[in-house]
Amino acid sequence: MSRATSPPSGAPIEHHATVESTNDLARTRGLAGAPDGTTIVADAQTAGRGRRGRSWRSPPGVNLYLSRVVRIDPARAGLVPLLGAVAAREAIDETLGGDPQVAIKWPNDLLVRGEKLAGILAEWFDGASPFGVLGIGINVNATRADLPPDVRWPATSMALVAGRRHDRQALLARLLSSLEHQRELLQSDPEGLVARVRDHCESLGRKVRVHPPSGQPFEGIAARLDPDGVLVVQTTDRQIRVVAGDVDWPGPG
Ligand code: BTN
User: Fold this and answer.
1) CA-CA distance, 126 to 245, in Å (whole number)?
2) Are 214 and 113 in contact (CB under 8 A)?
3) Distance between CA 119 and CA 147 in Å, rounded?
4) How many Cβ atoms are within 10 Å of 177's Cβ, its own excluded?
5) Over the stretch 194-208, which tens digit does the pLDDT of each residue have?
6) What is the pTM assigned to this prediction?
């Protein structure tokens, strides 16, 4: 393991060859009192986790796996995944030079031409000093063989969509810098952060299937994204504000 600090926040960054899950290690650091912005980066994960109990395939040498401790007002916990989506989208977009377009599937997947390029796992831990862990996995140089044969949602990588490999260290530097900027925005202008999501959100106007953290999935039209980051879904008889959860759209997979 090596340590460095991330300007301007000065929070520690740990680099590991292999961990079970960067989210799990970030949670351990957070529980031990690590400051906001503490970041865990790994070259590989042996038990990388996705949302809704899925695993996240994390082979060495090809992708980016990172988790960050986020200490914010618990009233804004719902914005943590959006912080990750905007930061990762901007870092990827800069690296790809804007072509092809990278879209956000609210609240936290990044898609290119309907295929999943990156996933975000945001977790919140209550207690005396509540904090969030923001986990980001980006498929950078993965080949088709490296990607999961996920029938539910097709996966892709930056190399596959751009036809060339990318420097993972340069992408990491952009991601860390963008995380700093979006973190500042979350503090100073949370509606501005949500506006950045809205600008690139592919969910809006679509028929979606919502998987709330508890309760039964339901379907409707993703009508709008409110300034507080909540997705409003129009069902046949009412509007439902979706504060947290996963959204799919009936179609691929
Ligand atoms: C998803 O799309 O289901 C979320 C995937 C999140 C994967 C990242 S990789 C870094 C961090 N550590 C984990 O164990 N998961 C997240």
Assistant:
1) 18
2) no
3) 13
4) 17
5) 999 999 999 899 999
6) 0.94
